[in-house]
Amino acid sequence: MNSKYIGYTMAFITIFVWGTTYAITKNLLNYFTPFEVLFLRFLIAYLFLLIVKPTFNFKFNFKFNFQEEKLFLLLGLTGGMLYFLVENMALKYTSASNVGLIVSSIPIFSSIIAHFTTEDEKFDKNLILGFALAITGIFLILYNGNKVLKINPIGDILAVVCSIIWAIYSNLLRKVDKSYSGLLVVRKTFFYGLMFMLPGLYLLKVKIHFEYLFNKDVSFSIFYLALVASSICFIMWSRSINIIGIIKTTNFIYLIPLVAMISSVVILDEKITPLMITGGLLILSGVLINDKKISFEKLFKPKTTTL
């Protein structure tokens, strides 16, 4: 199979799984605090990755390692702790579908950062048109949310912060030496994420109620977030960025609101309206155009015929 198709497939599967995590996490917040959900998720994920590949593969060039470890430390801070902590806090204050909607702005922040920090990923007509369509879809869904739900502005602001943090993480990720396996990158990211969490456990005097894990629904949700959404999907996301690039990979995030809405209906009994469906279709169109599956020229250039 062509490597690009593998990259697209991994990005799509990852986004589909991540789109379901908002409703699942919101349910877990009935049992745990945002910090507790985060710590349990990453602890289980990290232990799983150690079991899968217990060797550390450390190199012994300490000067070179020091520079690499600084990068992994930043990855652990952004993608390993801050993003998920802020996301969990956002879900505490606003709806799962709304958080899914707002984080779909990640490609916008990612492409802005990539435009100024890379030479090979620049804005073009397809990107601008795709962004315009996707943003229109986002506003339609947001308008619907304002009519149907009482939106807490604190939750929405936190969701925007999530988008910026993940955009930074994605751009940092491309700087990692490609000789590293995706599994090792994710495991090191989780390790530093956990290191950042430990002071929080002490300062916040967090007491994790492990007895809730005896509830089969709770334990399934935690392990789904830890093993599937974190361990496996982080590896696929890392590989996808290496294969097809930041902008093409993060463009799939436009699909998150659609997946989040469907999973919210199934898990949280939220309602889907015609405005939400229309917004989802516009978001999908934005993804296709950004990925040049539909070209700007073909949309607006009249067809010519030959005699």
Order of helices and strands: HHHHHHHHHHHHH
Which residue ranges are poorly predicted, with pLDDT under 50 across at least 5 consecutive positions?
56-64, 302-307
Q: In whole angstroms, how far apart are the ends?
A: 39 Å
**Approximate shape:** globular
Mean pLDDT: 79
Radius of gyration: 20 Å
Instruction: Give helix % range.
Output: over 70%
| Helix-and-strand structural type | mainly alpha
Say how many strands there are.
Answer: 0
Largest sheet: none
Count, helices:
13
Q: What's the number of structural domains?
A: 1
Strand portion:
under 5%
Write a structural description.
- This protein has 307 residues and is an all-alpha fold.
- The chain has one domain.
- Helices cover 76% and strands 0% of the residues.
- It has 13 helices and no strands.
- The chain has helices at 3-28, 34-52, 62-93, 96-102, 106-117, 125-148, 153-173, 182-203, 216-244, 246-250, 256-268, 274-290, 296-300.
- Helix 1 runs parallel beside helix 11 (256-268) and helix 3 runs antiparallel to helix 7 (153-173).
- The longest helix has 32 residues, at 62-93.
- The chain is globular and about 50 Å long.
Keywords:
307 residues; mainly alpha
Question: Could you give a quick summary of the protein structure above?
Answer:
This protein is mainly α. The chain has helices at residues 3-28, 34-52, 62-93, 96-102, 106-117, 125-148, 153-173, 182-203, 216-244, 246-250, 256-268, 274-290, 296-300.
